[in-house]
Amino acid sequence: MRITNFLHKGDLPSDVVFKGDIAVDTEAMGLNNKRDRLCLVQLSDGNGDAHLVQFAVGVYKAPNLTKLLTDSLRVKIFHFARFDLSIMRQYLGVRTAPVYCTRTASRLVRTYTDKHGYKEICKELLGVDVSKQQQSSDWGAETLTPDQIEYAASDVHHLHKLRAKLDAMIAREGRQELAQSCFNFLPYRAELDLAGWENEDIFAHS
């Protein structure tokens, strides 16, 4: 199967068609979702291809992408959804739902380890070595390098398969309802982050 990575400026073209649930990831200038701007949103429907939407400074009107992210009939699959949801909310103004988070799922069922990064779970569950070399590169550059494009695409290529593996483990351990409740809460967790509760557990006794 031929795999192609498509780079789009500013929005998805109107003729791009996705089937079923969508894997989503973002790249930004850093991990502070109020300070560090959103640079890239990556998407895949699991067929091998990836579509990358690159944003110029201050230009975040993307109606086609927004429509896809807010489609209530499609699950959006993330790894560490909390960050991606909050930065897309901050810059694109979208509240993305419903969602699935492979990191959250991993923490619920891979309780035998404290390694829940994308690289680690791809290695264990899929036998795939994912390079993180470009993770800290300059995503705000006007022209992305081929290595950056390949790295960004790889972050959505495996999410559908990871979800399938993790769902089997969640079912085995009888934690489906708990997992779904966590996924349902994630958009609200992102809202709390943006509202100033990012470092506080509002459920803690104090």
Fraction in helix: 40-55%
Radius of gyration: 16 Å
Oligomer: single chain
- How many angstroms separate the termini? 55 Å
- For the record, the CATH architecture stands as 2-Layer Sandwich
How many domains in all?
A: 1
Strand order of the largest sheet: 1-4-3-2-5-6
Question: What coarse outline follows from CA principal-axis ratios?
Answer: globular
**Approximately how much beta-strand content do the residues carry?**
5-15%
CATH superfamily: Ribonuclease H-like superfamily/Ribonuclease H
Describe this structure in a few short sentences.
The chain has helices spanning about 65-70, 80-90, 100-110, 120-125, 145-155, 160-170, 175-195, and strands at about 5-10, 20-30, 40-45, 50-55, 75-80, 100.
